[in-house]
Each structure stands twice: as structure tokens, then as C-alpha cells.
Amino acid sequence: MAQPKLSLKEKYQLMTRGLDWETTYQPMDKVFPYDKYEGIKIKNWDKWEDPFRLTMEAYWKYQAEKERKLYAILDSFSQNNGQLNLSDARYMTAIKLWLQGITPLEYYAHRGFAHVGRQFRGAGARVACQMQALDELRHAQTQMHAFSHYNKHFGGFHQANHLRDRAWYLSIPKSFFEDAMGAGPFEFVTSISFAFEYVLTNLLFMPFVSGAAYNGDIATTTFGFSAQSDESRHMTLGIEVVKFVLEQHEDNVPIMQRYIDKWFWRGYRLLALVGTMMDYMLPRKVMSWAEAWGIYWEENGFALFNDLSRYGIRMPKYHEVATKEKMHITHQAWSVFYTACPATGFHTWLPQPYEMDWLSDKYGETFDRFYRPRFELFGQMEKAGNRFFTNRLPLVCQTCQVPDFFTEVDNPMKQSVRHYQWKGMKFNFCSDGCKDIFVNEPEKFCQAYIPPQQIYQGNAGGARTLPEYAAWLRCPMGSEAGDYYSSDDYQNWLKWHGGKDTTPSTAAA
After folding, report:
1. What is the pLDDT of residues 278-290, one digit of tens each?
2. Do residues 392 and 464 lie in contact, with contact meaning Cβ atoms separated by under 8 Å?
3. How many helices (H) and strands (E) does the chain have?
4. How many domains does the chain have?
């Protein structure tokens, strides 16, 4: 009789768990030396429930179908000069920041999961990490393919790798992943699959990608939604990791709580870039950062931690600070980018009148009292021919590497700065959250490569001033950096549209 066809679950079990074995000529602890040194105790790896449950054969078929659909749309977008149908060329600043700051993180994630997938002695965990490593490599490639079309028509796309290791603002995402990749396997999976995927990915791939569609960027929208099905599986993996570890031994609870506290805060600080993209870089607005934070964290995140409370896990430390800061961080970040734009790889501008009204509507008295007057003053200076640029390098947080532009959560007129003495050296931080992370791991974070410090020491190609640093970045004013309305991108946009400025007159244009 013919053998009955195996179900997908049976085939998965045979092709993953069925191929595992206990080593004999070398002890298991020597073959897998890293999955115990964090102090995590695993009693039974067979309790691992893999949320992917795909064999390689099924995985490739599933992803190949998505690739066919994705590249058909990308080709159509390119052949029909889709770049001309964008709402406005200002939108390209968000895509430049994505390519410079976010796409490299996808490749970092690929490398990280390929590494830790070798470190788990449980077969299910190894297979799950292998699948996610493949996903992350695909995401990096599809993003670069989609953005390659814009490289033909706009400045700022051709040297993302050069900028990644040199631009001050890119040390923020870079340090996040280097911190994660320098951690143990359980901390890495918690940092990326749980904190990064659950907190950051939802806010990037949902509200921002919807904004890309609203601004005519079908290329970004398509790869974003193509990746979101993968991201959903990744978030499921992150939650499964946390629950699996918590169920294995009660001693794991305080370790996981520390990981959750740390990586929530690190992910939140990184989100300042994403929030600024949403509030200031989309000519046509969809959702404010404050609204997105309310939906994707205050509602979804709180529900998740209500579920985890039965394991003894509480809400991440300083989550209430993050919620209060949602009314301020994007305005403060854009002020920094606007004044420091000669030392970046993209263009900036002052909000148009319709955008100021939209920000007033979304942020109320917070924006009108603290930030509208600042932008109005900058506008007056521009008209008088005295466009304001900063002439100094900022104090930078030793942990998250964000310039210290945040203010105290209950006093927006006072800069938030924390200090800590360790081994005769003074370290600076932007918040209590970042200071706590340093105090717990000073040997790790004391080695952080802080851009302003290195520049003043002459380690940035010999640059010691902001103009010299900008030259080292290879981002000349006009074509790569500086004010948008005096840029090559803006002049080309006018030519392509017969001299017509397409800047929307309303947020919902």
C-alpha cells in the first residue's frame, strides 16, 4: 500500500526535531557554550513551540510567491515613472533616512539570527532563528531594490554604506544593533524579536507605510506590506521566546524583566527617528506620532503585558515617561535636524502653514506653546537671509547615542541630562532609562564610539569643526544636505512639473 501523505505538521517535526541528536564524543555544553552563561535555565527544550512551523520547501514556495508579486509592482512603478506621482519631493527625506538608518538594521538582524541560531541547543529554536535570518536578509534586499529607482532621480541615495559608519545620527540605530549582537543569545532574541519587532516594527510598517501609500510611494508601500506578514511571524516568535523562558524556571523571571526593561527603553529611543518621519517628513499626513504611540503601544502593548503579568512580568520600567514624551520628542528631533542639516545626508525645511495647523490640531497646547514660536522665529530668520544653523556638536547620550536634546518629562523648558562617575570618568545620559542601562553594564557601554567626542579628537578624517565634519561625510550642501528649498532635488522637481510647486496646501490634500 502507498504510504499516506504526511501532514505539514508531521513533515515539520521530521525535518526539524527528528534530525536533532545528543552529542556523544563532545559534551553538549561544549557544543553549545553560550545558552547557559546568561543564567537562563531551560529544563526541557521540547516544550518550545515554533510559531513558524515551516519546512524549507514550504518556506521557499511561500516567499517566492510574495517575491513575484512584489517585483511585478516595482517594475511597473519604475516603467511608469512613479517618482513623478509622489506628493512632493520633500517626502524623499523620509526614504533617505530609511535607507541610511533602517535598511542596515535588517542586515544586522540577518547576521544576528544566523549567529544565535547556532547557539541554542534546542532544535526548534535553531530552526526558528534560521527562518528569521532568511526573512531579514530578504527585507534588506527588497528595500535596496525598491529604493534603487529613486537613486536615479534624487540625491542622497548613493552612499548609504559610507554614511552608516560616519553620520552622527546613524550611530543611534547602529549602536542599538551592535549592543544586541554583543549580548547573549536569549537577550538578542528578546531585544530583536520581542522589543524591536513588537515596539518598532508595528510603528514603522503600519502607520508610516500607510503614509507612504498616501504620498504616492507605491514601491515602499508594496515592500512594506510584503514584509509585514514576516514581521507578524517575528513578533509571534518574540512572544513565544519570552513565554517559553518564563515557563521553564522561576529564576528566569528577573533576568527577562531586566531584558524587557532595557530593550523597551532602547527601542523607544530609536523610535524618535520614526516618529519624526511620520510627523515632519510626510507632506500628506496620515497619523501623528502621538496617535500611533497610543494605538500600537498604549493599547496593544498594555494588553500584552496584562497577559504576561501571570508570569510575574510587569510593565517595562519608565513606560510612563515614554507616554508623556510622545507630545514632545518629534518636535524636538526635527528642530535638531533642521539646525544641523549641513552635517546630515538629507534635506530639511520648516513646516508649511498647513502642517503647523495640523501639528496644532494633533498636539494642541504642547505644540502651540513650545514649538510653533520656535519655527516661526526660524522662518523670520530665513526671510531675513539669516537661516539658522548650529555651529557646535552636541552632547550625546553614552547609551542610546541620541544627541541630548530631550527635555524633562514634566518641564519642557529644562534639558534632561544625567551623569554618572565610573572609574574616574564622567559619563552623560539623556534619561534615567539610559543611565540605568549603563550602570548595569558599564564595561560594555564605556567603550561606545561617541561621534562628537571622536570628531573633537580629530578621529573623523581629521575633522574638528562642523563644516570639516560635513566634508568628511561627503554630503555637499544642495545636492546631499542643507535646506530643501535651495536643493537640487527641489529644482529638479520644479522642472519635472513645469515649474509648478506641488507642495500640498492641506494635510489631507
Report:
1. 999 999 998 999 9
2. no
3. 25, 6
4. 1
